[in-house]
Design brief:
The chain is α+β, with helices and mostly antiparallel strands. The chain is built from 20 helices and 31 strands. It has a nine-stranded antiparallel sheet. It has a seven-stranded antiparallel sheet with strand order 2-3-4-5-10-15-14. A six-stranded antiparallel sheet has the order 17-24-25-26-31-28, covered by helices on one side. A hairpin with a 3-residue loop joins strand 24 (about 715-720) and strand 25. Helix 12 runs antiparallel to helix 13 (about 485-505). The protein is globular. Bound molecules: alpha-L-fucopyranose. Alpha-L-fucopyranose binds near residues 388 and 634. Alpha-L-fucopyranose binds near residues 395, 525, 598, 674 and 678.
């Protein structure tokens, strides 16, 4: 059936129009810009105040001191430990322990539980040569003769530009500094200028805690070269200083500029790390670092900056969020202190800023040319012994770092994650064989850049073989978001298959009921060891389900498919409702109502998994558990709870968790704190907000599933849903006004939103009305790749009615087409059981 074209109402046409080209200019200085962090004094503390810039491999923290500027900087591969470090063993047992695991399994079969200490005594082994992420050191710029108290001081980080700036005035001169970390060219660029000629003078020098190095200056270039004593990893950084006007002199290990009109420096750094098992070493970094600095030094500041802005904005500008924020002209630390989580537009400003900041931080710490993904601190670390080695914890933390990536349209940031997980297959295969006697690959609770896939002996965190399976969830999810079958076949499937194969061999038959369970199993960092802990079972079910779906999609490995199908049929699903209505954390009903442990692992099936659907009895049980655990926790724990409440479709509680995180787990520079600083909470908070706005884990696009009542009216654009769909929406007085979906592939699309149970219309780009199939609050139609479809809430009627068609006609047509479907209904229905997916896809 075809329909006459409709003339689109003007404001609808505006929504449909492609986003305006980003302007090249930043917001004017001093004007409130809702996406700038700014402060009226220099930073004195690295962790809480200094501002982060980064391009993935390189990161820096800017202090903005007046007499001395400090840039602490990092290169993400600079790690102690691993091959070359005495006694490094990848965490594999130094001598075989043939019956050790079986003995633990027998004891758990007999007694039901074992203490972590008892299991660690049998299976653990001290960590050797694990290493830690290292600061590269600091650049200092000393400004001789600068007044102590300059006027109009401002230090800022623009999230729109990914540029940090410092400005102040002294003796009638305004001084400006500007820093960015460019992904193009892999350089950190600094520029110093003044509004009067000849006023730029400074000395640039380097310090670091790494003793085994040389620092030399020649032709305005500092060359910092050395090796870590522990593993002999070579490192090099170069900084080229270029002045306009004035003079430049080299002085041993420093460069001085005097009386210049402006000056720029470009920094690049590298190591001889390579991501390849077992040596993890590549070429000396000298040639690459030299080439990067030479290339950047051959360009003007303007060229470097334009390349950076174009690259960064291409990612950052894809998503916009308006939740009614209005940014007051107060520094960000004061905005944070004044935050109440109430109704004010200032509070909305901070929430919107936190959402954007997570995206900024991911773009800044995970890019295509990265050898490693974002670690516990992203790319930023000022220490030689950072908390938890600033490593890769894989019982929540690394996974959380990437929850936001696809949802918030940053697919390009996921490459390092995929490469890192794939690089664990080789060492993890050896560990699977030697420790567990299993096929496939495995990794434990914590890992490093050198394939540490075995065990250590910290009783409450040494054991978590489910980690490998969990890390592959993102790989499969990336396929669900992008529908990229080539990626599934070549990159994701082999890794997912290996993680699934491990469990085909390592599951244990539970003598209590004959089901297959994980034993020994340990719900992360909580309680006793047992068999069949809920999270263990949910993760294993997820990886088997994903591996099977992928093998079917690719039409490969029939024998493997049969094995997985048989195993799934016997697997304990790990979802049980306990005596007080809670979701059980363990197979036995051991949960305490007064336990407020930060890990809420047994809710994995709700988030990030998809085995529990809101409204189902298990979801009610998850709510009981979550309520009992309370609204506290470390930074990442609160961030996870935003996501949980959003998946339970409780937007007000999700916002409550975001506000708890902002109030009690956020530092002045808006970094998340565990404490100490841990970046996962920033990423988890952004993901949580995205989950409030769009969900797609059940293969339909659920728009505004958990809108908090405090976000009365607003809009977003550019969020992504599984099935290769980009989503925009506007809402007013708590109800969606307009939803626009842009599918990237042709085929059936399902869109769910509260108002669809009421009055709605769907248009294609030409204004032709689309006749979807409706079931309650969910529409299905055959969508064409590259087209935009607009669903309008006719009941809200905030847009003018299309002039050429009477209101009754399309509704009658829908009624005729859907004689058996409910046409009107409550605005916010309890979600129906998950509709059948438009194509055979599954997730875990
Ligand atoms: C997990 C958490 C801790 C911390 C550490 C880095 O082990 O339980 O709270 O976040 O990772």
């Amino acid at each position: 059936m075809t329909h006459p074209p409709l003339r689109l109402p003007t404001d609808l046409a505006a929504v449909l129009a492609p986003p305006a080209q980003a302007t090249a200019e930043p917001a004017p200085q001093g004007a409130p810009d809702n996406l700038t962090l700014w402060y009226d004094r220099p930073a004195t503390d690295w962790e809480t105040q200094a501002l982060p810039i980064g391009n993935g491999p390189l990161g820096a923290k800017i202090f903005g001191g007046v007499a001395t500027e400090q840039l602490q900087f990092n290169e993400k591969t600079l790690w102690t430990g691993g091959p070359g470090s005495p006694g490094y063993d990848f965490g594999n047992w130094k001598t075989p322990r043939p019956d050790a695991i079986v003995e633990v399994q027998r004891q758990i079969d007999r007694d039901g539980r074992m203490t972590p200490e008892a299991v660690a005594a049998k299976l653990g082994q001290p960590k050797t040569g694990f290493g830690a992420y290292q600061t590269f050191g600091d650049l200092y710029l000393d400004f001789a003769g600068t007044p102590q108290n300059p006027a109009s001081y401002r230090r800022e980080l623009s999230l729109r530009d990914a540029v940090a700036r410092v400005t102040y005035a002294a003796d009638g001169v305004t001084y400006s500094r500007e820093y960015f970390a460019g992904h193009p060219g892999n350089v950190i660029v600094g520029r110093l200028s003044a509004d009067r000629g000849g006023k730029v003078s400074f000395t640039l020098r380097h310090t670091s805690p790494h003793a085994d190095k040389t620092v030399t200056a020649a032709n305005g270039r500092l060359i910092i070269r050395g090796a870590l004593p522990d593993n002999k990893m070579r490192f090099e950084a170069q900084v080229q200083v270029l002045n306009q006007g004035g003079t430049r002199t080299d002085d041993g290990d420093r460069v001085t500029v005097t009386g210049a009109d402006s000056a720029m420096f470009v920094l690049s750094a590298g190591t001889d790390y390579a991501g390849d098992y077992p040596a993890y070493r590549g070429p000396d970094p000298h040639a690459k670092v030299t080439a990067a600095v030479d290339a950047a030094a051959g360009k003007s500041h303007d060229q470097l900056k334009q390349a950076h802005l174009a690259d960064y904005r291409n990612l950052f500008d894809r998503v916009k969020l308006d939740i009614g924020q209005s940014t007051p002209a107060v520094p960000t630390d004061r905005l944070l202190r004044a935050y109440t989580g109430g109704d004010s537009a200032d509070d909305r400003a901070l929430e919107a800023l936190m959402f954007a900041y997570g995206r900024y931080l991911l773009i800044s710490s995970s890019r295509e040319n990265d050898l490693l993904p974002a670690n516990l601190q992203g790319v930023w670390n000022n220490s030689t012994s950072p908390p938890w080695s600033a490593d890769y914890h894989v019982n929540i933390n690394l996974q959380m770092n990437y929850w936001l990536a696809e949802q918030t349209n940053l697919d390009e940031t996921t490459g390092p994650y995929a490469r890192y997980i794939a690089a664990m297959v080789a060492p993890g295969t050896k560990t699977a064989q030697e420790i567990y006697g299993a096929r496939g690959w495995v990794v434990g609770n914590e890992t490093n850049p050198f394939g540490f896939t075995g065990l250590h002996d910290w009783a409450t965190s040494f054991w978590f073989p489910e980690a490998a399976a969990w890390t592959t969830q993102q790989l499969y999810d990336r396929y669900r978001f992008t529908s990229d079958v080539t990626y599934l076949r070549d990159t994701a499937y082999p890794v997912i298959k290996g993680a699934a194969e491990f469990w085909l061999d390592f599951l244990h038959t539970d003598p209590r009921d004959g089901t297959l369970v994980v034993s020994p199993g340990y719900s992360p960092e909580h309680g006793d060891f047992s068999a069949g802990a809920s999270m263990s079972q949910q993760i294993v079910r997820g990886v088997l389900t994903n591996a099977l779906a992928a093998a079917k999609k690719l039409g490969v490995d029939e024998g493997f498919q049969a094995e997985v199908t048989a195993t799934l049929a016997r697997l304990d699903p790990g979802i049980r409702v306990g005596s007080w209505g809670q979701l059980q954390e363990w197979k036995s009903d051991w949960d305490s109502k007064t336990d407020d442990h930060r890990h809420v692992s047994h809710l994995y099936a709700l988030h990030p998994g998809n085995q529990i659907t809101a409204g189902a009895p298990e979801a009610e049980a998850a709510k009981v558990s979550l309520t009992a655990r309370g609204d506290g926790g470390t930074g990442w724990s609160k961030a996870w709870k935003i996501n949980f409440w959003a998946r339970l479709l409780d937007g007000d509680h999700a916002l409550k968790m975001l506000s708890e995180q902002i109030k009690t787990s956020t530092l002045d520079n808006l970094w998340d704190t565990h404490p100490p600083f841990q970046i996962d909470g920033n990423f988890g908070a952004t993901s949580g907000v995205a989950e409030m706005l769009v969900q797609s884990q059940h293969d339909y696009v659920h728009v505004l599933p958990a809108l908090p009542s405090a976000w009365k009216s607003g809009s977003f654009s550019g969020l992504r849903a599984r099935g290769d769909v980009t989503v925009d929406a506007t809402w007013k007085d708590g109800a969606a006004d307009t939803i626009i979906v842009r599918p990237g592939k042709t085929g059936p699309i399902m869109v769910k939103s509260g108002f669809i149970a009421d009055r709605y219309r769907v248009y294609d780009e030409q204004g032709h009305e689309v006749g979807p199939h409706r079931d309650g609050d969910t529409l299905t139609w055959n969508a064409r790749a590259g087209k935009a479809y607009t669903i309008r809430n006719e009941a809200a009627a905030t847009l003018p009615a299309p002039p050429s068609v009477g209101l009754g006609e399309p509704l009658q047509r829908v009624q005729a087409a859907e004689a058996n479907a409910e046409v009107t209904g409550p605005r916010c229905r309890r979600p129906a059981a998950a509709p059948a997916p438009p194509s055979a896809r599954a997730g875990g």
